[in-house]
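FW: tagging you since you asked about this chain on Friday. Here's the raw sequence from the shared folder, copied in full. Didn't touch anything.
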Amino acid sequence: MEPRISLITLGVSDLDRSLRFYRDGLGLPTTWTGDKGVVFFRTGGTRLALYPQADLLRDVGRTDAPRSGDAAPSITLAHNVRDRGDVERVLAQAVEAGATLLKPAHDTFWGGCAGYFADPDGHVWEVAWGAFEFAADGSLEVP
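HL: got it, structure written out here
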C-alpha cells in the first residue's frame, strides 16, 4: 500500500445542507451538486466527500448508525492554519456557517493553539496552529 489517503468521506443526514455548510459557509471548492448523490471537494492533497449516511452504511454492509450525542468521537478531522490568529477566525467562520463550537481557541500542551467545532452532522474538526510547515501545494509537512 502506498502511504497516501486519497479521500475522506463523511456520512451526512442532509446532503444539501452539508453542501451549503462546506461550500458556502467554509468556502471549500467544488463543482459538484447533490443531484449526483455525492459531493466532492478539492482540498490540498486529500479530497473530502459528502455521502448520505444511509447509503454509506449500506455500502459498508452496516445497519447501525452512530447515536446522536455519543460520548466521544472516534475520529477528528484537522485543519491546520499558517497563523495563530487564523484559529479563532476559522472557528468563527465555521460557527457562522452553522457549526457548533465545541472548544474555543486555547493554548495547547504542545506549544500551539487549537480549537474544535462540530459540523451540522456532528463530525468533529480541530483547527490548529503550531510549529508546522507547509509544502508548496499547501499540504502539511510532518517531520
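FW: The two ends are 21 Å apart (CA to CA).
HL: agreed, and The domain at 1-60 is CATH 3.10.180.10 (2,3-Dihydroxybiphenyl 1,2-Dioxygenase; domain 1).
FW: great, closing this out.
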